[in-house]
Amino acid sequence: MSALINIGYLVASVLFILGLKGLTHPRTAVRGNLLGAVGMLLAIVLTLTDQQIVSYEMIILGLIIGGAIGAVLAIKIEMTSMPELVAVLNGFGGIASVLVAGAALLESALKPGVPLMQLTVATAVSGLIGAVTFWGSLVAFGKLKGLISENAVLFSGQQVINSLLAAAALALSCWVVIDPTSMMAYWLLVGVASVLGILLVIPVGGADMPVVVALLNSYSGLAAAATGFVLSNNVLIITGSLVGASGIILTQIMCKAMNRSLTNVLFGVMAPAGEGGPTADEVYGGKVKSASPEEVAVLFETARRVMIVPGYGMAVSQAQYPVASLAALLESRGTTVEYAVHPVAGRMPGHMNVLLAEADVPYEALKDMDESNQDIDQVDVALVIGANDVVNPLARTDPSSPIAGMPIIDVDKARTVVIIKRSLSPGFAGIPNPLFSLDNSLMLFGDGKKMVLDIIAALKEA
Predict the structure, then answer these.
(1) Are 135 and 265 members of one domain?
(2) Residue 445 forms beta bridges with which residues?
(3) What is the Cα–Cα distance from 294 to 456, expressed in whole angstroms?
(4) Whole-number pLDDT of residue 295
(5) Residue 174 sits in the same domain as residue 254
(6) Which residues of the chain have pLDDT under 50?
């Protein structure tokens, strides 16, 4: 039976890998998602056949309760809240690793004989990484949800304290390995790691929180892999490693897209947002030109090439369907329409891609940042919907800016830029955007969905 279960785990692992490969392209994403789900179902069924700890009645009860919670979350959580949900799920993975590893250590302590070195080392790693992941994820969730300040929380000696906590956590890990019968050592390790997890995330401002969420995702995978060694469960080791590796790759991609150092993210040393630089009054004073939907419609009537740049504001207003309708209307009149998608537009990687795919926007119309910037000066109208920091020219022009050096979509080089936004409020970086006051820019103030619908109505009337 053990051999059959391990063969089944291997099949499930292959399905996970094929699922991840499928998710790399929109055309195969649905199939990839299905393969991953089948792999998870197979892994769960195989695990339940090896009953050792609790009765099937308790397992079924847990499935019903957990399934009900998951179903409610799936129905109620909107796409705009997906980053917060991801942060919470990362935290759940971390705390599960902590509790499972602790239970395994307690069980081994009650048995005669000395626990294997693999068990004790893996238990210490699970407790350390799992606790950091759980509490770091809760802080990330609080910042994304607005329950705590999105601003960076900094204090004197912060890095020294973090270093001391890390050293203490390593020392306690050694204690767990040397004396696995001491549960106090394990729970002290969890306590110190919990404080470390909080202090590693609170210095990060809202602008950089998506990077931290991706990193915490990687941590949750590493904690799960360590727990796999605790339980001698091959599929948990493989899947945890896949999540850990893919999470760190994603973090690296996001760091590159935001001009951030991976080392700084790892150790919670992130530049505070919104400090220094010109004030909003200095940037906008008397220079901002507002427009009406009718005036924007006139621009579209004569435009041969239009570029749409989506941002978090499009997600908030759920404007993806009207945007797709606007693009279809313009294309029916002979206008070329394309979408420029920044790697970190929104609050998580692929956020805009998912929303636009939901509205049946052809994948071929989505251009990445580098491709869009190549000939953006040939674009007649660039329509920015709710994007802010990813189109802020300060990233190119102000070395002292918090986003200095961050690759952006150079919409300011288009012949005319129309920005749909509720107000002149700053983005996650907390700094003003000179794009809003440029000579070739027009501000269309209002809800993204309503403004796009008004533009469509004005075009049809014309």
Answers:
(1) yes
(2) 421
(3) 9
(4) 92
(5) yes
(6) 273-274
Q: What is residue 274's predicted lDDT score, i.e. its pLDDT?
A: 47
**So what's the pLDDT on residue 277?**
61
Regarding whether 188 and 139 lie in a shared domain, the answer is yes
Residues carrying an active site annotation: 389
Sign for the pseudo-dihedral over CA of 291, 296, 302, 306: positive
Give Cα 197 to chain centroid, integer Å. 18
pTM summary value: 0.78
Dihedral of CA 140/141/144/147: which sign?
negative
Same domain, 358 and 430: yes
406 in the same domain as 290: yes
pLDDT at 208: 72
Residue 448 sits in the same domain as residue 379: yes
Mean pLDDT in the chain? 85
pLDDT of the residue at 188:
95
261 plus 385 within the same structural domain: no
Tell me the CATH number at 394.
3.40.50.1220
Cα-flanking dihedrals φ and ψ of residue 418, to 5°?
Answer: -115, 120
Cα(first)–Cα(last) distance of the chain, in Å?
Answer: 73
Q: Quote the domain boundaries for residue 348.
A: 280-461
Burial bucket for residue 291 (CB in 10 Å: 0-12, 13-18, 19+): middle
Domain closes at, from 273, 292, 324: 273
Pair 19, 39 in one domain: yes
User: Given this model, what pLDDT does residue 138 score?
Assistant: 92
Which of 43, 76, 109 lies at the terminal end of a domain, its last residue? 76
Q: How many folded domains does the chain comprise? A: 3
Nearest to 384 by CA among 306, 462, 329, 284: 306
